[in-house]
Every structure is written in structure tokens, then in C-alpha cells.
Specification:
Layout lengths: L1 H13 L7 H8 L31 E5 L8 H10 L6 E6 L5 E3 L2 E3 L8 H9 L36 H4 L4 H11 L6 E6 L2 H12 L5 H20 L4 E5 L8 H8 L4 H28 L4 E4 L5 H9 L4 H9 L12 E6 L2 E5 L2 H18 L3 E6 L22 H22 L3
Helix pairs in contact: 1-13, 4-14, 6-8, 7-10, 8-10, 11-14
GO molecular function: hydrolase activity, acting on ester bonds
Family: Belongs to the 'GDSL' lipolytic enzyme family.
Organism: Entomoplasma ellychniae
């Protein structure tokens, strides 16, 4: 995934055209709001549409904000709409054994080998298909209900990838939702964030930089996002905490290395503090909006999730699933990238190739008015026969069976939330 974001971020850093960043503009204008009940009151809702319907459990609409755990066509749609500012016609596809799925003969981009928990939840509620949306989506017909984008954070990133990822920060996602949709009291929001923030905190500790200001900024923006939703009429939010940093294989690998032994304790303390900060924000929302924000605490329930996954298998498969529960189903470093303009296709081997080829190909594209197609293919499954036994499709993202287990947990919680909502 790191390679994927290097490639995508280079699109926004090497192309010699100016793109106006919504996040950059908002950060420049940002004034500290002391009263949490005023957060989000400045959002322009003049173009908001009423997209409500009649769904199960008296739900009038369902929205998703988050990161790659919920992203279905979110990153690809965002990149395509962002590049439109350059007057380029581009399409991004993320495929391969580990990523994406087909439904009704249509391909959906995501960072798992099947539907995410949020996508499954939407289907169960009666929403046929989650449509992606972001702050750059235009026209009422362009507005969707899923704002989750892979790589999204709560905090402001000061990195190359921050060039584009800051525009899908959690506070920006919440702002886009309120700008684009009229809110009803029976609307439901699934809100999950924090995994990428934990990763960035680890990075700051690794390079010896202060992480506390980022941790505070991420916490503040989660507060801004939640209160922006609540202050604009959202009454039902299901919040999922991120998994602990040592949960995915990539960080198990990092923290097992000799050179990280001395900073391991610092990493665990810092990431645990971020979790505690999130819980404090949730408690604050409950002080002002009682029983409107409901918690699925993934941070404290990853062992339960692994046990649940393991128990879905039988006999020999169960033994293999237990052995592979901390192992990636693919070698995620073996990402293949193809760049196609018109009928010309070239293989891209990393950022340097992309940097050297893009200006030439983009010029050809604009001249011939051809579409730029960027296809990112994950590596093949290491064990195609038993791929379902692997908890993780790569070193960071769970497989579709895990998403299904989480969906079942979320749906059970949604039923309770909406039952309680009737009495509000």
C-alpha cells in the first residue's frame, strides 16, 4: 500500500499544474472554536440535496466516513475527480488477487478481496450500492454517501502524500457530507478512522521527531468531525476505533526488529494515548448529545475478532487458519503498475519510472484527448487454494471473511441503535 500511495502522490507533486486544495484553504482560514456546539455551523449547505429513502429499521439514509477499511471506489473516484482539475481524463483501477471484487458484472475497487464491512452493512439495510463521494464531487447527481478513502487520516499530514490525502481528512469528509446532503433525524453514520494516524505516529517516533503535536491535531480533528455531524442534525453515529498498532503483520514485523526494541515501548505508549484521546472525545460528545454516538471498540476486541475468524473453519482448514492468522496472503511489495494512454501501455516500476514517463504521456494525452488509465495490480495469492485461511490479504488489510464478521457485529449494533432512536 505504501508503494501505491507513493505512486498516486507523485501525480500531484510532479505534474506542473496548480491544484487548489480545499484542506489547505480551510486550514489557512481556520480559527479555533472554543465552543464545541459551534463546530460545523459555518458549513455552506445551500447545495445540499435530500437523498433520503426508506430503509430497514426506519433508517432514512446511511453514510460512511473513514479510511481503507471502508473504502469502496473511494480512493479511485477521489483521484479521478482531483485530476479533473488538471483538465485530464484519467481512471484509476486497483485490482489483483488481494484487491477488489465484482458485483452484478461491475468491478469495485477496495483494499480487500471482497466487499468491506460498510458495503455489506449498506446492502443489509437496503441500500443497493454505496456510491463514493468527496469534497470535489460536483452536482447533486455526483453526490454519494460513502466518503471513506484509503489512506485518510484524522491529523494533518506534512508529507508528499499529504498533498492529496489532506483533502480526505476526517474533518473534510464530515464537512463534505453536511455540504452535500440534507440531514434527517433517522440518518445513520458509520465513522471509523485512526489506523493511518497510528502508522504516522510510529513513523515520527522512528525518525526521532516529536509526535505529540500530531497526536493532538488528530484528536482535535476527530472532535471537529463528530461535532460537525452532531451540530448539523445527525442523531445516530456508530464509531469504530482503529485496531492497535501491533495488530497488522507489517507492524509486527517492524517491532520485532532489533533496532526497534528501544522505541517499542514509546510506540505502544503513544498509540495507546491516541486511543485514550479518542475515547475522551466520545465521552465529550455524550455530554452534549446523549446516546447519539455508539461505540464498536475494535481497539480492545481484535483478539475476539481473530478467535471468531478462526472458529469459522473446520478440521484441517482450522489448523491452517490458526497458523496463518498473522501472515499476509500476498507479498504486497510485488505491486505491478501499468500506465495506458490511448492504445499505448507501459509498465511502471516504482516512482522514478512514473516521474520520468508521466510528463511525456500526459502531454500526449492532452494533445490526443485520450484517457489516462492507471492500473495497480496486487501480487498473486501465495496459496490460491487456501487463501481464505489468511486473516490478512496483505500486511495491513483483512480479507473479505473478516469484513463479513465485522459486518455482522455492526449490524447487530445498528439494530439496537435504531431501536433506541425511536424513543428519542
Amino acid at each position: 500500500m505504501k508503494k501505491i500511495f507513493f505512486l498516486i502522490s507523485s501525480l500531484f507533486t510532479i505534474i506542473p499544474f496548480k491544484i487548489n486544495s480545499v484542506a489547505k484553504k480551510l486550514d489557512k482560514e481556520k480559527n479555533k472554536v472554543d465552543n464545541v456546539l459551534e463546530l460545523g455551523k459555518d458549513i455552506d449547505k445551500s447545495n445540499a440535496k435530500d437523498s433520503s429513502g426508506k430503509y430497514k429499521h426506519n433508517i432514512s439514509n446511511f453514510f460512511v466516513i473513514g479510511d481503507s477499511l471502508s473504502d469502496v471506489n473511494g480512493l479511485t473516484t477521489f483521484v479521478e475527480q482531483r485530476i479533473k482539475a488538471l483538465k485530464l481524463n484519467a481512471e484509476l483501477i486497483i485490482k489483483g488477487d488481494a484487491y477488489g471484487f465484482y458485483k452484478d458484472e461491475k468491478f469495485f475497487n477496495c483494499f480487500s478481496n471482497g466487499p468491506t464491512a460498510a458495503f455489506l452493512l449498506a446492502e443489509k439495510l437496503g441500500i443497493k450500492c454505496l456510491k463514493p463521494s468527496n469534497i470535489y464531487s460536483e452536482g447533486v447527481n455526483g453526490f454519494g454517501n460513502s466518503y471513506a478513502v484509503a489512506g485518510a487520516t484524522a491529523g494533518k499530514l506534512n508529507t508528499n502524500s499529504g498533498t492529496f490525502l489532506n483533502d480526505v481528512r476526517i474533518d473534510i469528509q464530515a464537512r463534505a457530507l453536511i455540504q452535500q446532503h440534507k440531514i434527517n433525524k433517522n440518518d445513520l453514520v458509520f465513522f471509523e478512522i485512526g489506523g493511518n494516524d497510528l502508522a504516522y505516529i510510529v513513523k515520527l517516533i522512528q525518525i526521532g521527531e516529536d509526535y505529540t503535536s500530531y497526536l493532538e491535531d488528530a484528536t482535535e480533528r476527530i472532535k471537529i468531525a463528530l461535532f460537525s455531524l452532531l451540530n448539523n442534525g445527525i442523531k445516530n453515529i456508530l464509531f469504530m476505533t482503529p485496531p492497535p498498532i501491533e495488530f497488522p503483520p507489517i507492524f509486527q514485523d517492524i517491532m520485532s526488529k532489533k533496532e526497534y526494541i528501544l522505541i517499542k515501548e514509546v510506540i505502544l505508549l503513544a498509540t495507546d494515548q491516541f486511543y485514550k484521546n479518542i475515547i475522551e472525545v466520545l465521552e465529550l460528545t455524550n455530554e452534549h448529545y446523549k446516546n447519539c454516538v455508539h461505540l464498536f471498540d475494535l481497539y480492545k476486541n481484535t483478539d475476539f475478532l481473530k478467535n471468531k475468524f478462526y472458529k469459522t473453519f473446520w478440521f484441517k482448514k482450522k489448523k491452517l487458519a490458526l497458523e496463518m492468522i498473522n501472515t499476509s496472503a500476498t507479498n504486497w511489495e510485488e505491486v505491478e503498475v501499468e500506465l495506458t494512454i490511448g492504445e499505448q501501455t507501459r509498465s511502471i516500476n516504482g516512482v522514478r519510472d512514473l516521474i520520468s514517463l508521466l510528463p511525456e504521456l500526459i502531454f500526449a494525452s492532452k494533445k490526443a484527448n485520450n484517457k489516462i488509465l492507471i492500473q495497480i495490480n496486487s501480487a498473486k495469492f501465495n496459496d490460491p487454494i487456501n487463501f481464505d485461511c489468511y486473516f490478512f490479504v496483505d500486511k495491513l488489510h483483512p480479507n473479505k471473511n473478516v469484513h463479513y464478521i465485522v459486518f455482522k457485529i455492526l449490524y447487530k449494533k445498528v439494530k439496537k441503535i435504531m431501536k433506541h432512536s425511536k424513543n428519542k
